[in-house]
Amino acid sequence: MNQRVSQFMATIKAKNPGENEYHQAVQEVAESLIPFIEENPKYKQAKILERIAEPERTIIFRVPWLDDKGEIQINRGFRIEMNSAIGPYKGGLRFHPTVNLGILKFLAFEQVFKNSLTTLPMGGGKGGSDFDPKGKSDNEVMRFCQSFMTELYRHIGADTDVPAGDIGVGGREIGYLFGQYKRLKNEFTGVLTGKGIEWGGSLIRPEATGYGATYFAEEMLSTRGDGIKGKTVCISGSGNVAQYAAEKVTQLGGKVVTMSDSDGFIYDTEGIDSGKLNFVMELKNVKRGRIKEYTTKYKAEYHEGKRPWGIKCDIAMPNATQNEIDAADAKTLVKNGCICVSEGANMPSTPEAVEVFLNAKILYGPGKAANAGGVATSGLEMTQNSMRLPWSREEVDERLHIIMQNIHKTCVRYGTGKDGYINYVNGANIGGFVKVANAMLAQGLV
Ligand code: NDP
Ligand code: 2IT
Q: What is the residue range of 258's domain?
């Protein structure tokens, strides 16, 4: 590691002890940015990177709620307000038992660069809770959401901080959260995105992350005169991002052969076509069942406790969670002929896995670029809320597509090396940094 990077990381680790995912996210960015900052001393002198790595505000709160048996449950709630240089804090809420401060800080940090890449005026934030929605009744989820918002409402607002969904937070949870916010503030505003279409939501927002990651893959492939048509694609996850990535890949003529959840993955050699995907959507979004149940209806292998990266594919789309591809998985993917990785999830590849992809010079699209379509379309939802005028499906999809093409262009501009290989990691980190850094310089010591 470069000496300046290791000095910088020593301070980060000392100030944020035990927050491993946060260290990981900051180090990746520092490795791209420190050489760039050395060439641009105005950023160095103003200690922009040091400031970006310290959240503007961190809120941690108690979330007490009553379960269906009348027993009191206590969870912990968080909101990390990371950076507001280019717009109100913006980023999702994650409800998952693994949630802790370090994980949400990594997500909030990545969000700052991602949101800048979208070209829309959004700062970075993230929040959530260690609450596990799995196995809870709708009433329990509602009571939890109401209690969570009873504290969060005082910190957020349409021009202050605009949360949305992430793992464990979908349309149902956004509905309960919005209802409680409206009740407490007596205001109907665009304080959350991912809202239902009848009450201020945007068409295409549910599809946006998965569609966007697929558009990004198509852009990367086009730099080599290639495309998704005819390609075999391994997808992990079976939630919001995975479902709509599968839909778009299939529409563009690719064949999706795997989907997964935290228990295992299914492998359907014939491809998960639109009829089969409808079954997965019903299974996951309505019945809230396990991916294993796919095999009760369709012919497919089920691999308990395994991730799909051992299956031969041309394109891999990790769409479940952080650090779900390790170095061994990455080597297997490359050995099996994988030419493109487009990350729907945030930081799904370990640093060692990323190194494998970059050394093999395959097309590697890191999450903060490839999955930016979700938050970009949240930005478009905010625009429509401000105008009080909804756009058509075609209009939003067209704008999403153009935004993904522009993010790709930014990555090419900042990430192309002397040998012509596009390092999308450097491209996304530097491209996302410049706008935020210039705004911070202009706004003085904040
Ligand atoms: P969902 O909750 O809808 O789905 C998550 C999926 O990932 C489920 O299949 C879940 O399986 C699986 N999963 C979650 N945690 C783990 C784990 N620890 N190990 C293995 N599998 C796991 O979430 P999303 O689809 O919204 O999010 C997926 C990823 O995409 C996350 O990294 C998120 O940060 C990222 N993302 C999401 C955006 C959005 O708009 N929703 C935007 C940009 C990025 P199980 O049901 O068994 O838990
Ligand atoms: O990681 C992400 O970009 C999201 N979960 C979406 C955030 C948003 O505000 O739409």
A: 208-370
Please say if the pLDDT value at position 35 is more than 80.
Answer: yes
Is residue 192 within 6 Å of ligand 2 at its C-beta? no
Distance of alpha carbon 89 from alpha carbon 13, whole angstroms: 25
| 418 Cα–ligand 2 center, Å | 33
Give the mean pLDDT of 53-81.
98
Average pLDDT on 62-79 reads: 98
Measured from the Cα of 205, ligand 2's closest atom is: 10
Decide: 377 in ligand 2 pocket, CB within 6 A: no
Query: Nearest-5° angle of CA 398, CA 404, CA 407?
Result: 140
The tens digit of pLDDT for each residue in 195-244 reads 999 999 999 999 999 999 999 999 999 999 999 999 999 999 999 999 99
CB distance 53 to 13 below 8 Å: no
Is residue 126 annotated as part of the catalytic site, yes or no? yes
Query: What span, in angstroms and rounded, lies between the C-alpha atoms of 145 and 171?
Result: 12
Q: What is the CA radius of gyration of the chain?
A: 21
Query: Is residue 396 in some structural domain?
Result: no
What's the average model confidence in pLDDT over 23-44?
97
Q: Which of 126, 136, 248, 368 is the catalytic position? A: 126
Tokens found for residue 264: 């295992």
d(CA 22, CA 113): 14
- Among residues 332, 355, 370, the one where a domain terminates is 370
The 10s digit of each residue's pLDDT in 332-383 is: 999 999 999 999 999 999 999 999 999 999 999 999 999 999 999 999 999 9
Is the beta carbon of 374 within 6 A of some atom in ligand 1? yes
- Candidate of 126, 162, 166 to mutate for ligand 1, largest count of ligand atoms within 8 Å of Cβ: 166
- Residue 379: CB within 6 Å of ligand 2? no
What pLDDT is recorded for position 308? Answer: 98
Average pLDDT, the chain: 98
Per-residue confidence (pLDDT) for residue 9, from 0 to 100: 98
CB atoms within 10 A of CB 349: 29
Q: Which CATH number is 136's domain given?
A: 3.40.50.10860
What tokens appear for 28 in the block?
């990746």
Separation of CA 10 from chain center: 27
Q: Clarify whether residues 268 and 351 are in a common domain.
A: yes
For residue 320, how far is its CA from the centre of ligand 1 (angstroms)? 4
